[in-house]
Structures are given as structure tokens and as C-alpha cells.
Amino acid sequence: MISNKSEHAEVQSSASQAAPLPHDNKKSTNWALLKNGAVLAVGRNINSMLRLVIAAIIARAFGANTFAEYSLLLATMMIAEWLLDFGTTDVFVREVSKHKHEFTHKLSTLFMLKGFQIPLSIALMITIVSLLNPSSNLMLGGICASLGLVFYAFVSVYRAVFKARMTLEKEMLAEFISIILMIPLIVLSFYVNAGIIGIALSLVLSRLIFLLCCIWLSTIEYLTIGSASVADAKQLWRASYLIGFIGLLSVVNNAAEILILSKLSTLQDVAIFSAAQKLVWPMFMILTAVGAVFYPVLASHWNNNRGQFTISAQNAFNIIALLGFLSFSGIYPGAEFMMGLISPELVTATDALHILLAMCLIKSFSAAMGPLLFIVGAEKAAFGYFVASVLIKVFFVSIFAEEYGYVGCALVSLAVEAFVVFPCTLGFLRAKAKLNINFLPTIFLAISCLAVILLFKYFIHLPSALELVLSPILLLGIAIITKQTSPTTILTIIRVRKDVS
């Protein structure tokens, strides 16, 4: 249970009484970093796949229109849930890492701030839903789902604790349990014919389970705001403002197509785009997780060895390209099978998955290389072109959504990543770090990937599910035979981890 009363104050007044932060010992810290990186990479993808199962259940049981309404609720919740965080978690972790003796006070301040953020996030979510699709059922579903924000607010407090103590496996486990238990709730909603309102209530109960599991797994039984003040909360909010604004732009960027399609096009288009987006998202998460592995060693090389920085950056790019094209070669010919997993109603809309797959591949390059701009001191440039890319995307999606539906939105997303974000990322790296990526290995991979796709499309006709498995295997074999890569390439990630240690 969480309480603001003094009799429930388990968070003690001294840092030594609270659960300890990670030791300063280098070996234990490196192990904690490795463990948390693995937990994030594996845990997020397992949870993402489970959400995909929930999406498929909803699409198949309730139909494409209800699945579209569910997707719209998720998009609005994503924005509202970021407002509940707004960068305060990262600021909290940064501050308690510097001043461990202030852990209790900072945690109390974070908890107090949620009291201001909760009504703002609920109001924002209800406003967005009412403006985009004011149908009575969806509006009521939005109101119901917004109640889950209350529970998620306190989940974010525990997330901050887990992150500061480098015990993110606890958050991943809590989220895993909440998603697993949401599945029978969705099935029950179907059998009682509760529609989108039942699904919304299932989301609320899932958030409650998430919170209860965080409490169970945490060493903190109660939180208190006794040592915090309004002035402290305001200071924390101001300190997190820039991170919060960047994060808000990011979630708006990810949700823009769904929100705009719901206003300007049909629910069927929303369902198709959302299904394709959910199918490519695990691929993007895996690639960005791999890219994140290189960040610490690249930061170290930038300070100590610029030549090695260039080599490591090229290795990172090559590995992202290899894994990206392997994924692309499987998902592209298997698109019909994968869309059918979500719902038979969506099987014919494979063009959405094909376009978003290409977008995701290019986006993964930008996501892997983009953080290097912060290492080389070009964060202002990164912020500037990111803001510009979001505005450009929203503008053109708004223009094309009504006439061209989900295809127009997908093409705009692909164009913005290919012709704005990716070129700007490489351009500023070239200007600030003199980093020139060698694209020849990537071009060879792209040609090989195209050859494999055409082979299965025109010459070897197999079931879509079988092509999904065989295409990456064939592409990897071609890459090894032609020396575009070698079996030891992936081991670069392990060597990178050793370098960090």
C-alpha cells in the first residue's frame, strides 16, 4: 500500500536504513549495468510480444473497429503516461546518484509531484479522446481507462527506485505479471460483451496489478511525503522540463499517425496501421537495444581514442545493418502471415507492414547513431532537427491521411525518417566528429536482401510462415559466403561489454 501518512513511513530518514543504492565498486557496477541492459533488451521484447498477443485477441474477438478504438486509447494513454513521468524519473536517478544521502527526501519529492501530475494527465487524455473521436462508447472507454493513470503514476515512482538501485528486473517482472493477467480479463470482457469499455477496465486493472507487483517486489512498503514541500516539487519539475519536453515530442511522434487517422480517416485504417506498427515495433526495440550496448564504450573512446571511436561507430552501424536486414528479409515475405496473426480481416493490408518495416529499419540506424551526437557535443543540433522532423511529419500526415489513409501515413513516416532524420544525424556526426560511415557493406547487404526477397517471391513459392524463417537463414548464409559478415561479427557486442568493464 502507498500512503502519505507518517505512520506508514517505511522510507527511513537515513540512506543507510533505506535499501542501498549500488556500491561504488567498479566490478559490481559493471555487472549491474550488464544485467540491466540484458533485462531491458529481453524483458521489453517479451512484454512487447505479450502485448501483441493481447492485440491479436482483441482484433480477432471484438473485430477490427474495436481493435482500432483500443489502439486509439493506447495512443492517448501513452501521451498521458509520459506527462506523469515527464523526465522526473531520470532527474531523480541522476540526483540520488550524486547525493545518496538525499535518497529519502528526493523520493518523497517525486511522490508529492505525482499529486500535481495525475489530474493534468487525466484531463489531457479525456480531452484528446473527446476531440479526436467523440463517440459515446469510446468517450466512456477513455474516461474509464484514464483511471489507470492514477495507478501508473505510482508505478513510475517505483520505476525510479528500481532504476536508481539498478534492479530493473523487478519492474520487468511486475509488468510481465500485469500483462499476463490482463489476457483473461480481455477474454472475460468478450464473453460478457463489454466491448471497448470492458477493454478499458481491463487496462485499468492491469495498471493496478502492475502497481501491486511493484510494491510486492520493492523493499519499500510505504512512501511518505512528510519531508517534501511544494517548492521541492517545483524544483524537480523545472529540472526535468527539457527531458520531459523531448520525451513528449517522442511519444507524440510515435502516436501521431494513429491519432490523426482516427480523426481524418476510418477506424479500419486505424486498425491496419496500428497492427502493422505493433508488428514492427519488437524489431525496432531489439535493434535499438543492440545499439545502446555500444554507447558506453563509444563515449569512452571519444574522450580517450578518437581513432577507435570511428572504428567502434562503424562496427555498431554494421551490426545494426546486419540484424536489421536479417529481420527485414524474414518479415517482408512473411507479411501476410504476420498480419493474419493479428486478424484475418487485415491479411490483405500487407502494404502497411512493408512500408513501416522499411521505416523501422532506417529509424533503427538513426536511433543507434543519434545518441552519439550527445557524446560529441551536438545535442542542440539533435534537438533542433528532431523537433523539425516531428512538425514535418504531423503536417504531412494531416494532409495525406484523409485522401490516402494508412498508406499515406506510412509513406510520410518512411520519408521523414529517410530524408530528414537519418541524413541530419549522419550530417551532424560528420560535421562535429569527422565521422564518415562506410556504406559499402550495408549496400551489399541491401542488395543481397532484395535478391532473397525476389527469390521467394518469383521463383520459390512457400507458405508465408516458412518464408519468414528461411529468408533470414539464406541471407545470413549469403552474407557469410560473400564475406559481408562472419560468424564472429555478433561477438563484437560481447567484446564491447568487456571494453566497458
Helix content: over 70%
Shape: globular
Euclidean distance between termini CA atoms: 39 Å
The overall pLDDT average reads 83
Poorly predicted runs are 1-24, 496-501
Outline the biggest β-sheet.
none
User: DSSP helix count?
Assistant: 19
Query: Helix and strand string, N-terminal first?
Result: HHHHHHHHHHHHHHHHHHH
- Rg measurement, Å: 23 Å
Hey, roughly how much beta strand do the residues contain?
Answer: under 5%
Number of strands: 0
- Secondary structure class reads mainly alpha
What's the layout of helices and strands?
Layout: H1 26-62, H2 64-85, H3 88-98, H4 103-132, H5 136-146, H6 148-164, H7 168-191, H8 195-217, H9 230-239, H10 241-264, H11 267-304, H12 306-331, H13 335-342, H14 350-369, H15 372-375, H16 379-433, H17 440-459, H18 464-481, H19 491-500
Helix pairs in contact: 1-2, 1-7, 1-11, 2-4, 2-6, 2-8, 2-10, 2-11, 3-4, 3-6, 4-5, 4-6, 4-9, 5-8, 6-7, 6-8, 7-8, 10-11, 10-16, 11-12, 11-14, 11-16, 11-19, 12-14, 12-17, 12-18, 14-16, 17-18
